[in-house]
Specification:
heterotrimer, A alpha+beta (243), B mainly alpha (103), C mainly alpha (763), A: 243 residues, alpha+beta, Immunoglobulin-like, 2 domains, B: 103 residues, 3 helices, disordered C terminus
């Protein structure tokens, strides 16, 4: 399935923006490295100490040197710094902004604890902390092509909800609620990993994200799940800021 | 060997001390009276700055030191104020929003 | 410090105040912990390559209870202690402690540091810290397992971080912090005040500049993390909740993110603290071994200072996914990537130094060139992490680990080796073996890349960091073979360091005797013998030119001119040997530098209080719980003590030693009265239920005023020592400086109370 060493299989169009941004950064840095290494090796060979060859005395404080330095600084600023900042801005808008159309968005609450992922969806009444909430541990199903709004808050230490195939992560911090938005464009089963050291079980805090069609998702919603814990045990009010 | 003559005389020390006590008394009066919180806050910021400057300029003799000695405390103080303000978006404002959502 | 009679081993080598001996103490400590940290890295790479398999040969020795293999509790301890030890007990002692202590006085033409006894205490503090962290491994519950970053609430709650290992790590780091602050005061004061005649700032070697900026950054930013760690200790042992929130803080807590801001506020400048001396050293070494001046000396120094300033405003790039405000994140991103500009200037100047030079490939030169190469990779990979949107994916993956190992374990480590190979002849009077040195270099260069480059690859795949076993994840299965590759490469890399250790130890006893200037270098250190006499120079040098006068036309049959030789008057690059004068005493400068770090320490505490209070929905005011009239009286007491302290200085300036003693005693008395009133006030409030763990306000109140009280107590001790010493006439010659310095500290403590009284009690 995921054969090579490269990026894991992409499951969202927004995530691919990150891949593109990385390749831009990679080419820029790659060229810089080749120039530096190339010049370095060339100089080491050409200017190695040998008989009859002496060094050229200069402090590099001439006007030409200063102009060259300023030109280099400007080039780095424009070609690398401004360039990357601009493309980052474009990519950021695509990935982190609140989705425009939220009419069919699915809201998920994630309350990770050492060392498992607890998910909750609102159920048919659309309200959280009611009897018909869907509770699940370590396995989350979502419908494909649907905006997903995630609210995270940890129940003990800091964890981080990481979806490698979607190229996103967000820390879950105790005492505050953090948010994440994404959309799956390809059905499949994807890994969920914890990306913030949370104790001795951090390495095995693994979950599964199942992306399926709307019908299969509705089917999953109606399946009886194992009793996890009473609905009132955790969760929060979805305030205005989180739509 | 002293390279800076102490040009702070006894009279100055006494006056500075009197000023410090006076400002302290004003502070206590200001909170006992019925002024608005913002007014009290601004007033206290003023008195604290005044007291700190009095101590620094006269007791610590900054007044008779070269200008670059002033940089040694001034730069960290500036840095501190900036650092504290940098904490506001996350610690003051984010918290205010999130406590509505507490478990 | 010279011309002693019979000195015991203890006073010559253990409690020495000679900067050269202290430097060697730092070097040995650092090298021991370097080995220790490297061994831990091997265990980690074994675990990642072959999870839960018994470790060959040594497994049963180390992990006998489990049957010779790691159990889940061990892995976090390994990466935590590996990181903390490498940063604070290996690299810092070697580069800041050893290179700084040894080179600074010699390179500026001084006989010793400005404060030799402080220097000795600085090493002592590090030594104590290293004892504590060594003990931490043997505590029940084991060593700390929170990561070197000690994120809360994992670290601040005793339910998630059990045992005393975590506390000992924090205390060990605090002692190391104290050591660094003392060192910073020494380095800054020495470089400003003790330069020889003619050693203007434009003639300082670049190594000295790097150490200077490093010391400044340390003085300013280290106190923030000291404040944060003290608050973590309070959370752990005093039932406060500064950084613990959510369900782990049942009475309503503070904020976990505050810790991250405080930690990285120091943590980011820290990495520049580690690499600035290396940048300076590389600049000097490339010049020595290309036999031409360092290109663009002024531009290099300006770049170093720019990066030093920028390093303090970019810390948020460690927190892009933390829940931080994304607009603030954008600002941090832009500031971070702009560091690429001064860095590019470095590379330009390094390469231009080599250009048209006459390059000699000695061992130190190879390592300096190695720094240029690996730092190119390290610095460029930093750009991936700096771009906020990319970082959302690669944060907490091995891309980060690869990046910082290229910049630390490759660049900074190579800098440390360059330092040792270059300075060994000067320090020990013997030469290291050149063939073994070059072999060490080539093996290290190749194997470093073999270990750290795959980290970037697996990180791009999404391999998280700090996980003990990656084989449970489908998406990581294709890269597990890279983990195996890295395991083998790490084994050979650590093994090849044995070549260095053997070379080092054997050369100490059997190396060829070194001349005073085996490298034909031009800076002042190389004009004296190897090793130098106790007072460093037979004749105090005067300086006539910069440190890089190689291949200058008219320099005669040698291709270099040292900084202190007169040379022919026809040379146009000889300067004046004017005296260096800085119109403030060393003592006063030292105290002011100390006060800079104290300002930042109280910023950590008071700033935390301000934002915690403003962000807390539970509103408690000091006016409700505190005894304001009593506190106001106490304020008056402390202000009066400032007056008496000022009067004691006035007395000493008028040579009136009777009144000096009177005013000093009165100051100490008023200070003690302040403390007594405070103590009774605490007692009363505690008994009526307002304790340090009652609520967030209580925690802040007792922490801030308690710390202030500790400072008052220290001040009283100092003043009583002065009073005691002032009985003897011998004291009167140094009285003014000592009283003035103590007075500055005392008045500062008074200012802190002025702020606390208003901000804590009255609002």
């Amino acid at each position: 399935m995921n054969g090579s060493w490269g990026f894991p299989e992409g499951a969202s169009a927004a995530g691919m923006e990150i891949d593109r941004l990385f390749y831009l950064a990679f080419w820029l840095t790659g060229v810089c490295f080749l120039v530096i290494a190339g010049v370095l090796i060339y100089f080491l060979i050409k200017y190695r100490a040998r008989k009859g060859h002496s060094a050229y005395y200069t402090h590099g404080s001439s006007k030409q040197a200063l102009l060259f330095t300023l030109a280099l600084a400007l080039a780095v600023f424009v070609l690398i710094d401004v360039n990357l900042a601009y493309h980052d801005h474009l990519a950021w808008e695509k990935i982190w902004s609140v989705p425009k159309d939220l009419s069919n968005a699915v809201r998920v609450e994630i309350g990770p604890k050492q060392f498992e992922w607890h998910f909750r969806l609102a159920g048919a009444d659309g309200k959280f902390k009611t009897e018909d909430d869907i509770l699940s541990v370590n396995e989350l199903h979502i419908p494909v092509h649907t905006p997903i709004i995630v609210a995270l808050s940890s129940r003990d230490v800091i964890h981080s909800f990481f979806l490698p195939n979607f190229r996103i992560k967000q820390d879950a911090v105790p005492g505050i609620v953090t948010n994440l938005y994404f959309k799956a464009d390809k059905p499949g089963t994807y890994d969920i990993a914890c990306a913030e050291h949370c104790g001795l079980g951090h390495y095995r805090m693994r979950g599964w994200l199942v992306v399926e069609s709307q019908d299969e998702f509705n089917q999953w919603l109606t399946e009886p799940l194992e009793e996890t814990e009473p609905t009132a045990e955790w969760g929060w009010e979805w305030g205005a800021r989180v739509v | 060997m002293h390279e800076t003559k102490s040009n702070v005389g006894l009279a100055s020390y006494i006056w500075v001390f009197a000023g410090l006590i006076f400002l302290t008394a004003l502070e206590v009066l200001a909170v006992s009276a019925d002024f608005s919180k913002t007014a009290v806050l601004l007033f206290l910021l003023g008195t604290v700055a005044a007291k700190a400057l009095l101590i620094a300029l006269f007791f610590m003799h900054l007044k008779s030191e070269k200008w670059w000695v002033w940089l040694l405390p001034a730069l960290p103080v500036l840095l501190s104020i900036l650092f504290i303000f940098a904490l506001f978006p996350d610690i003051v404002y984010h918290a205010a929003q999130t406590f509505e959502h507490r478990i | 410090m010279s011309g002693h009679g019979k000195e015991s081993f203890i006073s010559r080598f253990v409690f020495s105040t000679d900067h050269k001996v202290i430097a060697i103490q730092y070097l040995i400590t650092g090298l021991l912990f370097l080995g220790f940290g490297g061994a831990m890295a091997l265990l980690m790479r074994w675990q990642l390559a072959f999870p839960w398999q018994p470790i060959p040969f040594i497994g049963h020795l180390l992990f006998s209870s489990s049957g010779g293999f790691l159990v889940p509790e061990h892995y976090p301890m390994l990466f935590t202690m590996h990181g903390s030890i490498m940063v604070f007990f290996a690299i810092t002692p070697i580069l800041l402690g050893a290179l700084g202590n040894y080179s600074i006085p010699l390179e500026i033409g001084a006989q010793d540091m400005a404060f030799p006894r402080l220097n000795m205490m600085s090493y002592g503090s590090l030594f104590l810290g290293s004892v504590l962290i060594t003990i931490s491994f043997f505590m029940p519950g084991g060593a700390a397992g929170s990561g070197w970053t000690i994120y809360t609430p994992l670290s601040s709650s005793t339910t998630t971080s059990i045992g005393w290992g975590q506390d000992l790590l924090i205390l060990g780091l605090a002692l190391d912090g104290v050591s660094l602050l003392m060192g910073g005061i020494n380095y800054i004061t020495t470089i400003v005040k003790l330069r020889a005649r003619g050693m203007s700032l434009r003639r300082l070697p670049l190594t000295t500049w790097g150490l200077f900026f490093s010391a400044v950054l340390n003085t300013v930013w280290l106190p923030l993390v000291v404040a944060a760690l003290i608050m973590v200790l309070c959370d752990r042992r005093l039932d406060t909740a500064f950084f613990t929130a959510g369900p782990l803080a049942p009475r309503g807590g503070g904020q976990a993110l505050l810790y991250q801001h405080l930690f990285w506020g120091f943590g980011h400048p820290e990495v520049y603290i580690l690499i600035l001396p290396v940048w300076g050293l590389v600049g000097d070494l490339l010049s020595v071994f290309s036999r031409k001046p360092a290109f663009g000396y002024a531009a290099t120094v300006i770049s170093m200072s720019t990066i030093s300033v920028l390093s303090g405003v970019v810390w948020g790039h460690h927190m892009f996914t933390s829940g931080m405000n994304p607009l603030v994140g954008k600002a941090f991103m832009f500031l971070t990537i702009s560091i690429s500009i001064p860095t590019a200037v470095f590379f330009l100047n390094w390469l231009a130094t080599l250009w048209r030079g006459s390059i000699h490939f000695t061992t130190p030169m190879l390592f300096a060139l190695g720094v240029v190469f690996v730092f190119a990779i390290g610095g460029l990979t930093g750009l991936y992490n700096a771009v906020q949107t990319i970082d959302v994916y690669i944060h907490d993956t091995y891309v980060v680990v690869g990046h910082f190992h290229y910049t630390l374990a490759a660049s900074v480590l190579f800098g440390a080796f360059a330092f040792i190979y270059f300075w060994f002849p000067k320090i020990f009077g013997r030469e290291m073996n050149s063939f073994l040195g070059k072999l060490h270099f080539w093996l290290s260069l190749v194997l470093l890349n073999a270990v750290f480059f795959p980290m970037i690859l697996v990180g791009l795949r999404g391999h998280m960091r700090r996980i003990a076993d990656a084989t449970g994840y489908t998406f990581l299965q294709p890269v597990q073979n890279l983990n195996v590759w890295m395991g083998w490469a790490a084994l050979f890399l650590v093994g090849s360091q044995l070549i260095f250790f053997i070379n080092f130890i054997v050369s100490l006893f059997a190396g060829r005797k070194a001349s005073s200037n085996p490298w034909n270098a031009a800076s002042l250190a190389w004009t004296t013998s190897s090793p130098p006499p106790p007072e460093n120079f037979e004749v105090v040098p005067s300086v006539y030119r910069g440190p890089h006068e190689y291949s200058a036309p008219g320099s005669g049959d040698r291709d270099w001119m040292t900084q202190s030789e007169r040379g022919s008057s026809a040379t146009t690059f000889a300067g004046k040997e004017t005296a260096v004068s800085v119109p403030v005493t060393s003592g006063k400068l030292g105290i002011w530098v100390f006060l800079v770090s104290e300002i930042m320490l109280f910023t950590g505490f008071i700033g935390s209080y301000i934002v915690l209070r403003l962000g807390n929905p539970v509103k408690i005011s000091g006016l409700q719980v505190l005894n304001i009239p009593l506190l106001a009286i106490n304020t008056g007491v402390l202000l009066t003590s400032s007056l008496t302290m000022a009067l004691s200085l006035r007395a000493v300036q008028m040579r009136d030693y009777v009144n000096l003693r009177r005013w000093l005693l009165l100051t100490a008395g008023l200070g003690s009265l302040f403390l007594m009133i405070k103590f009774f006030d605490y007692l009363h409030m505690w008994e009526s239920g307002f304790t340090i763990s009652s609520n967030l306000f209580g925690s802040c109140y007792y922490l801030l005023t308690g710390f202030h009280a500790l400072h008052v107590l220290s001040g009283i001790v100092v003043i009583l020592c002065l009073w005691f010493a002032s009985r003897k006439p011998a004291f009167w010659t140094v009285a003014e400086g000592r009283v003035e310095g103590s007075g500055l500290y005392w008045h500062f403590i008074d200012i802190v109370w002025v702020i606390l009284f208003a901000v804590l009690c009255l609002i």
